Amino acid sequence: MKKKSYKLVTCLLILVLIIAAIFLLLRHLRQDPFAPDAHTTLTKDGVTYLGQGWSMAERQQLSYTSFGSRILNYSWFLSLENAEGEQLFRNNSHMADLGFVTDSANKFNPDALPVGVVRDQDDKGNAWVGLSCAACHTGQVTINSKPVRIDGGQSLINYTQFETELLAALKATISQPEKWQRFTARLQQTQKIKPDLVKQQIETRIQELETRYAINATQVPYGHGRLDAFGQIFNAVAAEALNIPANARSPNAPTSFPVLWDASHLDVVQWNASAPNMEPGPLAQNATTALAVYGTVDVLGHGKTYPSSIQIKNLGYIQRKYYKLSSPKWPKDLAGRLDKKLIEKGETIYKQHCLQCHSLVNSEDADRKLSAVLVPANEVGTDMLMVNNFTEGTVKTGELEGKHFALWFGQKFKAEATRLDVVMHVVTGSLLDHPWDSFCSVVQEFATNKMSHADNTVRYYKARPINGIWASAPYLHNGSVPTVYDLLLPAAQRPAQFFVGNRELDRVKLGNQTLEVANASLFDTRSTGNSNVGHEYGTQLNEQERMALLEYIKSL
After folding, report:
1. d(CA 519, CA 358)
2. pLDDT level of residue 13 (50, 70, 90 thresholds)
3. For residue 88, what are the CA distances in angstroms to 80, 160, 182, 195, 428?
4. Up-side HSE of residue 415: CA atoms within 13 Å toward CB?
5. Which of 165, 381, 503, 508 is most buried, by CB atoms within 10 Å?
6. Closest Cα partner for 197 from 294, 312, 73, 47?
7. What does each C-alpha distance from 463 to 360, 364, 413, 466, 475 come to in angstroms?
């Protein structure tokens, strides 16, 4: 008996050593080559890039790497016209109106689609168009109308308008004979098709999209640059994947797309600090996002693990590249040089009023380990809907009832469970459906971040370093304050309404200009979830002090 136990322990130790050796070897092989242009400001095709740690080749590849989003047949998307007129839906002018950052063709983007609009391929060889991380996390501002790309920045996509217009275009295509004829003619330039079969397939996809949009219906307009990602994630799994429409909850707490520089170095991520950032946390977070943004997962009829569209191999690559990303520096050649004396005065004010929550970052430290400051939501006083929605309510578990939370062990699901438990179970099952890919991704993206010490009984909002904040308007988690200047005013003096979608940088107030432009969306702080109250820090500063603080913040 002792010999058997000894052999078992020996075998386990050998297995652990083999896994450790493979882990270390793969970590060694993942090293990124030095890119001479990674930290150099350059201009290409009229767009200025600020040297945030990526080479041009890395930027292009990351912008068009799929994580498993599948919205529509790829060739359909390329051939689809808008609902009205003959302009192609994917036309750069139209996609720019929807808030996408347009791009030229390159090795990774042969069809010249906007940033983050990517090609994905399923196991049957079918090509799909979908969205990637870069769609929502690439910003662009203009300075005197000159475009400046912000890698990892906040996108201004109007997500709802994109979905609405896409569905309208599909319906118009199959209902208008001339439009249908042009559509099929484009398809036939590259492939043989059976028009009647294609029409049936489009009708099926229309029904699927209508079901999805009904599940995610909300009376709260998202507008540019916002999405209730958690709400749509919960619905994608609890309502769609489990096929229980009654589990749907209105995703009525949209938040701004958070910036991603330094995010991979933090101990915790998400606006509400809900996601510890130690492995395998980042892999699970990104897999969850893939499911929210038109990823698919098959839960019904499967045992412990679940087939999905998640491109697990790509998730490790994506996370690793974002680890290299640094914040954008103030573009002094375009936006104007900073006042050194004003910066010195502002630094003193920052230490008095801001540093307690918003720590300083050495972006040159490639392995920097950062800690977010977790502030109870009722203390910071900002809109509570997002944190409340995340924790409140249960859903029916359906086919999951009786299964273990952790697939093979732990508590078992009862007839109802929290939405988060259901989502994490399904995501874990999706990742473990491809265990080797998941292991390799963890190795590729692995970082020794600090451990989070959040109290799960407290509802928080996260305060993170604000370097590069000049390029991430509007502000607060729900995007309810247009400029940093306005954020330093008492809530009663902040704009009650303003337009979002103008990319021109406000170099004085620090944010984007709020004048109405074509296709801008009106933000109303009186709507549900849109409150601009709270964060009453530094609001007693006089005008000179406020401007000095803004000058220092520009320099971070």
Report:
1. 34
2. low
3. 6, 19, 11, 19, 39
4. 0
5. 503
6. 73
7. 12, 21, 34, 9, 12
